[in-house]
Amino acid sequence: MSSKRPKPEVRFRLRITKGDAIAIGPGKTELLEAIAETGSLTSAAKSLGMSYRRAWLLVDTMNQCFRDPVVTTASGGPQGGGTVLTDVGREVVRRYRRAEAVALAGGKRDTDAILGLLR
Description:
- The chain is elongated.
- It has a two-stranded antiparallel sheet.
- By secondary structure, it is of the alpha+beta class.
- The protein is built from 5 helices and 4 strands, in the order ββαααββαα.
């Protein structure tokens, strides 16, 4: 019987805090990306397997941490409400993903060496 070994993966988990709160991190960035994709906090939460309440709390924390909100909501109307990223929200996602890419590229030599030491 052959057991498949999981393929090693390098992931940087950048978190930026403000006091005791995590202003932005990998989960919050994924949530912002899901909101941008779906236009709905409910749909974004479902796509990530989290409750609406959890998603709302994460968005509320981000909106309190940043100088301007990262997400805004629209209520009512014929199509119902929606949730969208603000310019600040889009910038946070863009810069967060760029910082991840730079860290990954900058650490490639060392992470490759560590990968080489794995079973």
